[in-house]
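for the writeup, i need someone to sanity check this before i put it in the appendix. the sequnce is what the collaborator sent (i think, or maybe the updated version? ugh). structure was predicted straight from it, no edits. if anything looks off just tell me and ill rerun, i have time this weekend
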Amino acid sequence: MTTPVTLIPGDGIGPSISDATVRILTAAGADIAWDNQVAGIAGVSRWGDPMPDATLDSIKQTRVALKGPLETPVGEGFRSVNVALRKAFDLYANVRPAKTIVPGRFDNIDLVLVRENTEGLYIGHEHYVRIGDDPRAAAESIAVITRFGSERIVRYAFEHALAHGRKKVTLVHKANILKYSQGLFLDTGRMVAREYEGRVQFEERIIDAMAMHLVMRPEQFDVIVTTNLFGDILSDEISGLVGGLGMTPGANIGTTAAIFEAVHGTAPDIVGMGIANPGALLLAGCMLCDHIGQHAVATRVRRAFEQTVKDERFRTRDLGGTASTDQFTDAVVAALG
C-alpha cells in the first residue's frame, strides 16, 4: 500500500540531496507518494512565510515527513523553523543514531542518542534585564524541565532499546549543579529505569564527564538519553566520531507525527557545485521507511549506502573523496543490484 509522505527539500543544498534521496529510495522499491512542500527561506520566497500553512496541513494529513536542511538567519529574522515544527507537532523525541561505516579513529561505534526535543533552554523563554539606565544590561533565558517531559523521553529511550535489541541506557545530566531542573530529570529517569530493571542496564553520567568519555571510549555506550541542550551538543559530537554530519540522520518523533531529517546545515558555500553528500538525508529516509513499515527497503538502502561509502572512488568531498553528488547517487543505485 502506497504511503503518502510530505517532502520538504529545504534550502541551500537541500533540493540536491533530496532529489538524490528520492531517486535512491524509489530505485530500492519504496512505495511512497511524495507531497512536495516548502519551508524556511524557500517558504518565505514562495508564500512569504517560513512555515506555510500548506506545509503544516500536509504533515497533518500524512503524519510523516522527510525534511532537508532549512536556513535560519543568525540573530535576526524568524526563529528556527525546525524548533517551530517540533512545537507544532509535539515531536518530543529526537533520535540520532551514529554508526561506524568507514574505519577511522574509532572502528566499532554503534550508538543512539535520544534527546528531549521540546523543553529546556530551547523553549525560547527569554527577556532582557534592565540595570540602571541600560534596558539591555543583561539577558535571561529560562530552562523549563517537567516531570511529564522527562518521563516520556526516558521511557522512549528504554522502549527504543528493547525494540532494537540494545542492552544499556545512559542518562546524561548536570544534577550536581542544577539541582532542581536537572535533578528533576535525573530523579524521574531513575524512577522509569526501575521499571526496566533486569531487561535493560541503566547508568548515569554527568554531562562534562560524558563528553570526555565519548571521545575516549565511545564503544562503551549504547542508548544515550538526555535533555534538549545537552542532546544538541552531544549529538553533533557523536556525528564527529563517525565521519561528520553527512553520515548521521535524525528523526523527530511524536505521538501524532514524525519528521525525519538531515541535521547538517544548508552549506551555502557549495550550493550549485554538485558535490553535496546526500548520506545523512538518505539514512533519514531509511529511518522513515522503517517507521512506515517498509523495512526491506530500509535494509537494502543501508547496505548499498555502506558499500558505496567504503569504496574510495565514490566518496564525496566531505568524506575525503572527489565524487560528485550524482556519481555517489549512481553508485548507491548500482549497489542496490
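The two ends are 23 Å apart (CA to CA). The first helix runs from residue 14 to 27.
thx in advance!!
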